[in-house]
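Exercise 7.
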Amino acid sequence: MDVQMDAQMDAQMDAQMDAQMDAQMDAREDAHRHWMVKMNDDMKEAKSFCQSQLDIQSGKEIVHGLYGNVQIDATVVNERYKNRSTEWQHFIMLYGLTPDNVNDLGIIYKFPFDTLFIANMF
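Solution. The predicted structure, written as tokens, is:
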């Protein structure tokens, strides 16, 4: 009888250990999948930002406020318009800063895992 109970308890413990190991594997797979999706989204965002910068430099379809990115909009306004123009006034009303103020702040890089790094380029 004791041998049967021991075997039954061993089987239950083995089943519990298997269930816990499966749960750990599922958690690892979910974390890996989430990380891959996040990295893919960040790569798309970086590619879009680079394409926007190329569009600015080549003069293609630049519309103020289209990008929704203060750095890109500041670059557009600085390169395309004179100080105190209507576009400068719109920029100041939209962001509360002049394009020169934005450039003085430096470039804000967004890294994975929602951390920010600010580098002064001057």
